[in-house]
Each structure stands twice: as C-alpha cells, then as structure tokens.
Amino acid sequence: MAKKKKTANEIDTPQVSKAQGIIIGVFLAILSILFLAPIFIVLLNSFKSKLYISAEPFNFPDAKTFVGLSNYTDGAVKIGFFQSFGWSLFITVLSVGVIVLFTAMTAWVITRIKSKFTSMLYYFFVFAMIVPFQMVMFTMTFVANRLHLDNPVGIIIIYLGFGSGLSVFMFSGFVKAIPIAMEEAAMIDGCNPLQTFFNIVFPMLKPTAITVAILNAMWVWNDYLLPYLILGTENKTIPIAIQYLRGGYGSVDMGAMMAMLVLAIVPIIIFYLTCQKYIIKGVVAGAVKG
Description:
Mean pLDDT: 83
CATH class of the largest domain: Mainly Alpha
CATH topology of the largest domain: MetI-like fold
Structural class: mainly alpha
Shape: globular
Number of strands: 0
Low-confidence stretches: none
Helix content: over 70%
CATH superfamily of the largest domain: MetI-like
Oligomer: single chain
Order of helices and strands: HHHHHHHHHHHHHHH
Number of helices: 15
CATH architecture of the largest domain: Orthogonal Bundle
Number of domains: 2
C-alpha cells in the first residue's frame, strides 16, 4: 500500500507539545503585563489628586484621591493641548506622507536601475540607519537655521532626511520581489515611468507602505528632541508642551502631566491597533533577499 505523501506544512511545521504551548503562553502573558503596566499606572494616576500620586502611585483612586476629569481639563488649559495636538497632527501626517511617497520612489529607482551610483546611494541610505542622531544634531540645527527650515513645514523635510534610511531599506527589499515583467508590460502599453510607478508598483507596495507609515508615525508623534531643537517654544508639539507642566524649583503637576500623557498616547495607540496586522506582513515582505 502506497504511503500518503506529506504536505509541505506537515513536513516543515515543528510540533509543539501542550506543555510547551502553556509555557510559551504564560511567558507571553507575563511579558504583555510588563509592557502594559506603565501605561496602566499612568492612566490610574491621571484620575488622582497630585497630592497623592507620589505617596500612593499604585493604589486605585478612592473617595479621598479621586478628582474626576479635573486633571484633564486643567492640563489641557495649561499647555494649550488642542493647539499642540493640531501641530503634532499636522507635522506627523505630512511627514509620514512625504516619507512614504518619496522613499518608495527612491527605492524603486535604485532597485531597478543597476549602476555604481545607485548601488552607492543604497548603501548611503543603509549607513544612515546606524548614525546616532546625537552625532549630527548640532550641525543639523545650524544648517536648519541657515536654510530657514526651523518651522513646522521645514521640519517635515528634516524628518524626511532622518526617516529615509530605514524606509528605503524596507521598500527596496519588497521592490526586488515584484516581477519586472509587470512593469515592462505596462511600458509596452504606453505607460511612462511615473504612470508605471503609481498604477503598477505603488499599489503592490501597500503592505510595506503601511508598515513604514506606522513606524514613522510612532516616531514622529512621540519625538521630543528634534522639534525642541528646531521649533523651540513656538509651534509646540505635544511632547514639548507637556514639559511646561514643570513649575519653578522642580515642582511638577503630576496629575495634569499624567492626564496629558494619556491624551498624547491614545491617538497613536488607536492608529497602531488599527494597522498592526500589516506590520509583520510588511516586514517579512521587505526582508526578501535580492
């Protein structure tokens, strides 16, 4: 009697015992709790009076410590939260859009055009990933001031420069997996390079584009140092505005600060949870070996 041929999944998929599954599940649950605990503590203390946060940071609010939404309203008024939210949203949305569009086009060009120049350009982008921001922040600030980029529009160009390394690297890996015959067929049908990119290539880059957008959105939204150096005290983003809850002699309104931190992280958490299913798909797609 002929033996039944095993499928690819039966051959390649390792068997995990029930005990191993339980151990892995418990480990991941503990790891999740460790990651979520700081966020939960911040949320917990955002409803307490500032007088009790330092003394009872891990206790649930009770009749004595609970202050309702006063920390949220007071903090929003003190730092001009809605104006800062608007600047953060403006800079983040435009920066992410510019990064995704231009780095996708760059990755397509340097992947499809084989030359010493494009090869060198690719390695320049890869090298930019490992250069610490602290090494270039003083010269960057000097150049930004001279080129009049120290404004909400100019900082978008700076974010494009700092975000292009990882983005070009990820897009390049995915472009290598796209059959070039599809692009050649489009050009035979009369498409110019721009039409080929936007009608054929860019729609196929959707998983990686969403991954790049998520990673850069979390970076730009939460970034403190670059807006502080470039924008200063004008056009404050949320991370910069929150620091102004610190008073004289080191005093801090911890209740209002906790409340503003909650409001600051809620939008990016919602954005991440909405798009998280695309992250692994995009990372794996961008890891194709050329």
